[in-house]
Amino acid sequence: MDTIEKDLITKIEEAKKYIEDRIKVKPEVGIVLGSGLGDLAEEVDDAVMIQYSDIPHFKTSTVIGHEGVLILGTFMNKNVVMMKGRVHFYEGYSMQEITFPTRVMKALGVSNIIVTNAAGAVNKEFFPGELMIINDHINMVGINPLIGKNFDELGTRFPDMTSQYNKELISIANDIAFNLKLKIKEGIYAYMSGPNYETKAEINMLRILGADAVGMSTVPEVIVAKHAGMDVLGISCITNMASGILGTPLNHEEVIEVSNIVKDKFKTFIREIVEKM
Ligand code: HPA
Question: 240 an active-site residue?
Fold first, then answer.
């Protein structure tokens, strides 16, 4: 083992040990809670809460509306680990740093992961307040968390991405949305680095490329989760029409405000999905 390899594997082990020393049961489902969607964490029973700043090698978010707490316990009769808040590439962290918690979730025993975010609607038939099941993504950032030495014990060098969003989980989510009479969309998420919101020209480009929604997160975690062999479900909360569609400026407050309005619907949806997983 060379030093780099030892470093990542050792770091995962150290974070895993720190967390395992504080919990009684192994989590099986992981949930990453995006902007304004963190409330679900309050529904975890027998919760053990650990600040990211206390976990070896975890980075902390610098963004308002993004906390940094790991919550472990039971939720809908499943052992879960929830991430209340995540770190982003635009905060200056490396792709490896922002996906480190995903690696640790896998090491803790997570096999199914739900990744959520707030996103802008690129598709003009999608509207703020709706939820979108992600069925594919476009990585527009031009960098990838798997670049660098591959750790064979973590996953294969050239992972398949034809089905990175698990079809069975998408089908479960669609059935639940139908039963709950939720207005749900399904579509392609384009990942932009941010932190600025996109230009009108960029949004036109993304639409031509086939994107339905745009955001500044999720894709790195999904790539790593798939590399690690986890089944992934991605859900976007559409918080705004993307740049240029309405002709009004975009702002973070609006994103947080809409995700707050949507959160009850979102929580009901996630509850039922986890129950059926
Ligand atoms: N663009 C990028 N990220 C976002 C948006 C957007 O319009 N809305 C919420 N997150």
Answer: yes
Instruction: Domain of residue 93: give its range.
Output: 3-276
261 Cα to the center of ligand 1, angstroms: 16
Does 214 sit in the ligand 1 pocket, CB within 6 Å? Answer: yes
CA distance 109 to 25: 10
Q: Which CATH number does the domain housing residue 241 bear?
A: 3.40.50.1580
Residue 184's CB is within 10 A of a number of other CB atoms, namely: 18
Residue in 216, 225, 228, 230 annotated catalytic: 216
Report the C-alpha gap between 91 and 25 in whole angstroms: 33
The count of structural domains within the chain is 1
Q: Is 197 a catalytic residue?
A: no
Residue 183: the pLDDT is 86
Ranked by mean pLDDT, which of 7-11, 33-37, 253-257 comes out on top? 7-11
Tell me which amino acid residue 62 is. T
Residues 6+ apart with CB under 8 A from 8: 96, 103, 151, 154
pTM: 0.94
The span from the CA of 45 to the CA of 38, in Å, is 15
241 noted as active-site residue: no
Q: What is the pLDDT of residues 52-81, one digit of tens each?
A: 999 999 999 776 656 899 999 999 999 999
> What is residue 190's predicted lDDT score, i.e. its pLDDT?
98
What b/e string do you get for 194-230 counting C-beta neighbours within 10 Å, with b at 16 or more?
A: beebbeeebbbebbeeebbbbbbbbbbbbbbbbbbeb
